[in-house]
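FIELD: query
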Amino acid sequence: MFFLGVVFAEDGDSLKLLINEAVNDKSKVDLYNELAQGYIYTEFGLAQKYLDTAYHLAQKINYPFGEAKSLYIRGRNLGVNNHFQEAIDTLTMAVSMFEKMPGKEKAIARCCVSLGWTYNKLSKKHTALMYYDKGCKLYENLEDDGVKANLLLNVGSVHHGLDDLETANKYYQEALAVNKKIDNKSGLVYCHNSLGYIHEQKKEYEEALTSYFEALKLAEGEANLIYIKSTILHNMGLTNMKLGKLDKALKYMEGTRKIDIDRDDELGLAYVDMTIARIRFLQSKKTTNLSALKKAQAAGIKFNDANLQQKSAVYLSDMYTELGMYKEALEQHKLAGVLKDSISSKEVQLKVKSLESKRQFELAQKKEEMAQQELIFQNSLAYESKIKRILLGGLGILLLLAFVLYKAYTTTLSVKKQLLVNNQNLKEAEEVLEQKNTDLKKYIELNVELEQFAGMASHDLKAPLKTIGGFMGILKSRFYNAAEDNYKSYFDMVERSAKSLNLLVDDLLQFSKANSQALNIERVSLEDMVNEVKENLDFSISKANGEIQITDCNVRFYADRIKIKQILQNLVSNAFKFRDAQRSPIVEVSSWEDEKHIFVSVKDNGIGISEENFDKVFEKFTRIKTEQKFEGTGLGLSICSKYIEKHKGDIWIERNDGYGVKFTFTISKSLCEGQEVSRPMIAAQKACA
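FIELD: result
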């Protein structure tokens, strides 16, 4: 992404004044976008508010460029504030709009750079490189050293994340040279800080301090560089700790602490206070600040930061040992070990994800090479077609002259033979081209990512479905009562079909995301979730004169609350949907546990399912035939099955002794919390936005 300063009060007021005095709506759209851009790093909600205004006004006045630019800025705002998947979807929409406008290569390039940065944050390093490469190619004909420096720094950051320190250092040095050329102070600050971090990882601590000091000197007095200044001071403190210079380390950490307090950075402050407590403990074993470390550990849990939790556990274990509190020390030591294993597991997952991303990157390169070869082949084919037309014309002339020039007969026969050979060659070439097109189509179909499908489903299908449903409602409200009975059935049929298709799109979207979405693990109460489901389905329960019985559900465990609640709601609502008309529906939710799993069952007294269909109901688009017709897409239980699989559990069906069936699913107790992210590296990457 591109470096932007903070909008100060007087700048924002000036822009608002210009908006009030704008002579046309297009100018207002541009000014609202500019105003929102300035608040990206400081006021997420305010930036979104101005972008909403710009976007809707651009739509109203049919101003596509303003509309696309609002999406681009919104994507950047979402990415900088850690809403990465939403940022990717929004930026992809912006690219799609810009591509329909001639002469907008620079805007497309900016979107590609932002997409590269966002994919880098998601640890999809090679996908990030692919977008950066596309941005570089678009910028080749645009002289803009500022963008070039930013691209070099971002590409270096990706290689840094891949632990390719030498390549990262090469790009950082190139970015440093370009920033010096254009005297870009903020760019120089980021370059020196990144180079310092390279030196630190290579254990070249004195060189690291030199780079950090240069970055700090350039950042002094610059209000828009306050975040990176905090990071630089933090890095200098850590480096001095590694050199054993504890007094200097404490001085730099105190400087970081002051900035984090002013910025109300709770997570950053937790890191700093933890490090300060550690430094003072190392200075004097008698100095122990247990409260600071406990607060840091609590912040790690709050912000889902496994690295902060693990570090604070290690430091607490050391302090408890020094105080002779061996039981507490052992507990923290065990916790640190568990968190370390969790972090190692996350590292392995990231490496696997990186390898997959690399494979996709290489496939994309091969695809581009094939496209270039295809273009060359098509040009060759066009040339051969031209020759064919010339030869056919010559043959026509020769045939006309044959009536008067008998001696030319031999030449004409030779030309005919040559034409047959050429036609055969052309036919073979066309067959090769057709086969290549078929192979290329299959290749593309096999490599379309599931996220792209989800974006297409929501953007390209749901919008027209809403339009159909809306217009159908208008037509029905105006003409339904006056229509004949058979036409009324047509109205109802269209309305039901639209609702059914909308439901199918929702389920397809949910199904496509079921594998890719990461779990948001937290400690949950089964009884609370069942009561929430009961409240959500209150209307359906009352309408069916039904009852939900809760038995032995007072259990807490770690899981993704939203997904488990969705599974419960799906199973309970199915129980009321597939009820027997001869009796009131009763659904019983119960639970139990063993050493490794939590067991949850949902038992009903409905129409039941035949045993031969027990396994089929979890397959995609499976709908069991019954005497009654029930709404649905056949994806609900398939989605539930995927969510249970991600929780390391199983789901199955059993026949009840009386009526109906019982669904049972398990959740593994081994699910781990937290995710390792190094704060200095986070700061460096966020700053590159």
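FIELD: remark
Confidence is low (pLDDT under 50) at residues 1-10, 673-689.
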